[in-house]
């Protein structure tokens, strides 16, 4: 546990060690305090001058206060720096994790890891770890001083304290286990809340508010039960430590008084022993509470370590092949195609292929439509072209250059992608349009809006391009969201534009306009379009029909309609079928 914590302190170790040293110095000065007090008492009883011992005592007290304050500040600042580093580190790791890993996770839970888990860890890492180290030193220092004064008495006290320590250690281990349950429950609450809030309209329309509330309440109860369990265990720790200290006190008074009586111990030494016992009380209780607190942070540490263990995109080798990467020849083939997919095989889980040797070509400035029944693998093919996943085998080339020849950023800079549900990000229209092309001028933004028939609409808005679109573009209609998404993709001037049924949310007028615009777009780039609508299919130069994970048939719309019964069924047999093409 402490080793895990130590790994996480990377980057903060120097200030942490400095704070620790200062706290230790403050604590050491504190250890000297009873000795200074002993000096005063001994001077009093021996009728020696008091000025010197009193001055030493005052100096010791002042030094402890000043060094202690500075150490406390340094520690707080280190804690905040740790939180800063941890949050930025986690966020940058999370945004780069491989899609395959991301598919297994819940967004709300990931958000909890970057917020509540980091906060829990900060407490353990800075405050408590320093607290444990200093209190341990203070306790050891006090025990050594006691040993020097009266070994017999000290060993008796040590026996009492060790017994208490063993009991408390057992409790702390249980706290560690409960803390994992607690942090996992907190993560589940965040995930549940994210699920419900991100689909609030669906929740309302299905009258599922109460069910979602009950679900979240059940999760909250699970967190509550774990927290109360942990509190119950923690509550025992302070009294147990206190009990041990009190027993030590009684021992010192009884045995110590007897030993003073026998002349084995001076009165000053007895006073010092009592002061050391008083001084032991605080550190020992805090030490035990600190160990419990570190154990409480165990859950948070594990959850954060789990995030760091997730593979990032840059940690994967950009190449085809399931296991060992097989480099493609790096030469640049003559650019006869904007996109060339050869014999692509891929599945989301081993042994279940979705694409079983897909091959297709998109010539420069061509519009190719990808059609096929639902679940045939059209979106999967797009995800592979975007290199969100690495194929099992096969190759993808853009302008003759294989995927293995380019880093992910460069590869994706050649591709524009208009998703099926067209995610729009919170912010203004301008923010959204410039998302892939941050340097685009307003003139270019208006040209792109023109292309998707939105100029008129945006000009009428009071704030124009600065209009807020709302969370996930909630203030736009779905057709508008789709058109903004298209404009956004086009603005980045990609070599290849991937569109997942770009006319899906458009009315007939806008659908017709976009079909014309797609023809214009071909001047700039090649288009590969997942098509469900007749207008899109008819507009394509080539239609590739995907079935069973392969390109089942390829040809023009007219050819396929004439020669391919499967295609006839797809576009004609089920005019409004699941994924059958629809006439608008
Ligand atoms: N992230 C994923 N993890 C696991 N399986 C997935 C994932 N995405 C898709 N699949 C599965 O892969 C298969 C192909 O899905 P895909 O989305 O590529 O089909 P599609 O042809 O685009 O369908 P549609 O026309 O309905 O959008 C489906 O069986 C689907 O359940």
TrEMBL record:
InterPro entries: AAA+_ATPase, ABC1_TM_dom, ABC1_TM_sf, ABC_transporter-like_ATP-bd, ABC_transporter-like_CS, P-loop_NTPase, Type_1_exporter. One of its GO terms (cellular component) is plasma membrane. It comes from the Bacteria. One of its GO terms (molecular function) is ATP binding. Keywords: ATP-binding, Cell membrane, Membrane, Nucleotide-binding, Transmembrane, Transmembrane helix, Transport. SUPFAM superfamilies: ABC transporter transmembrane region, P-loop containing nucleoside triphosphate hydrolases. Pfam families: ABC_membrane (PF00664), ABC_tran (PF00005). SMART domains: AAA (SM00382). Residues 339-573 form the ABC transporter domain. It is found in: Cell membrane. The keyword Cell membrane applies. Coiled coil: none annotated. It is a multi-pass membrane protein. Residues 315-335 are annotated as: Disordered. Belongs to the ABC transporter superfamily. Lipid exporter (TC 3.A.1.106) family. This is ABC transporter ATP-binding protein.
């Amino acid at each position: 546990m402490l080793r895990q914590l130590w790994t996480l302190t990377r980057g903060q170790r120097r200030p942490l060690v400095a704070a620790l040293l200062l706290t230790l110095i403050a604590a050491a000065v504190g250890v000297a305090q009873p000795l200074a007090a002993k000096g005063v008492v001994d001077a009093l009883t021996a009728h020696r001058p008091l000025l010197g011992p009193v001055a030493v005592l005052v100096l010791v007290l002042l030094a402890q206060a000043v060094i202690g304050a500075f150490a406390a500040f340094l520690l707080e600042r280190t804690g905040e720096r740790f939180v800063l580093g941890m949050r930025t580190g986690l966020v940058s790791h999370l945004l780069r994790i491989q899609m395959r890993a991301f598919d297994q996770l819940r967004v709300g839970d990931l958000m909890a890891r970057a917020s509540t888990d980091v906060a829990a860890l900060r407490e353990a890492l800075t405050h408590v770890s320093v607290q444990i180290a200093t209190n341990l030193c203070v306790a050891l220092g006090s025990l050594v001083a006691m040993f020097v004064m009266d070994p017999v008495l000290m060993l008796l006290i040590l026996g009492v304290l060790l017994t208490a320590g063993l009991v408390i250690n057992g409790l702390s281990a249980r706290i560690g286990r409960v803390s994992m349950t607690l942090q996992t429950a907190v993560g589940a609450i965040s995930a549940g809340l994210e699920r419900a809030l991100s689909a609030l309209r669906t929740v309302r329309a299905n009258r599922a508010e109460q069910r979602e509330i009950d679900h979240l309440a059940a999760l909250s109860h699970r967190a509550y039960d774990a927290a109360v369990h942990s509190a119950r265990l923690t509550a025992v720790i302070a009294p147990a430590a206190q009990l041990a200290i009190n027993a030590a006190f009684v021992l010192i008074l009884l045995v110590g008084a007897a030993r003073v009586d026998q002349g084995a111990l001076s009165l000053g030494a007895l006073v010092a022993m009592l002061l050391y016992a008083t001084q032991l009380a605080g550190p020992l209780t805090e030490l035990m509470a600190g160990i419990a607190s570190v154990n409480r942070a165990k859950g948070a540490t594990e959850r954060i370590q789990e995030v760091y263990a997730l593979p990032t995109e840059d940690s994967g080798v950009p190449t085809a092949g399931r296991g060992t990467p097989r480099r493609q020849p790096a030469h640049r083939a003559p650019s006869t195609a904007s996109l060339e997919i050869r014999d692509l095989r891929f599945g989301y889980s081993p042994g279940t292929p979705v694409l079983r040797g897909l091959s297709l070509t998109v010539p420069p400035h061509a519009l190719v439509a990808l059609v096929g029944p639902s679940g045939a693998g059209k979106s999967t093919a797009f995800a592979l072209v975007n290199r969100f996943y690495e194929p099992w085998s096969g190759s993808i080339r853009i302008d003759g250059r294989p995927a293995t020849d380019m880093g992910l950023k460069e590869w994706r800079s050649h591709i524009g992608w208009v998703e099926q549900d067209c995610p729009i990000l919170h912010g203004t229209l301008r923010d959204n349009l410039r998302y892939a092309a941050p340097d685009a001028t307003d003139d270019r933004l208006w040209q792109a809006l023109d292309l998707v028939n939105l100029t008129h609409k945006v000009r009428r808005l009071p704030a124009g391009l600065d209009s807020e679109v709302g969370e996930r573009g909630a203030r736009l209609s779905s057709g508008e969201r789709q058109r903004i998404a298209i404009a956004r993709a086009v603005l980045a001037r990609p070599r290849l534009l991937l569109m997942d049924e770009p006319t899906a949310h458009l009315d007939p007028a806008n659908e017709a306009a976009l079909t014309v615009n797609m023809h214009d777009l071909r001047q700039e780039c090649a288009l590969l379009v997942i098509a469900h609508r007749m207008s899109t299919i008819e507009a394509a130069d080539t239609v590739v029909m995907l079935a069973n994970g392969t390109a089942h048939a390829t040809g023009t719309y007219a050819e396929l309609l004439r020669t391919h019964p499967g295609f006839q069924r797809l576009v004609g047999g089920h005019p409004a079928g699941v994924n059958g093409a629809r006439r608008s």
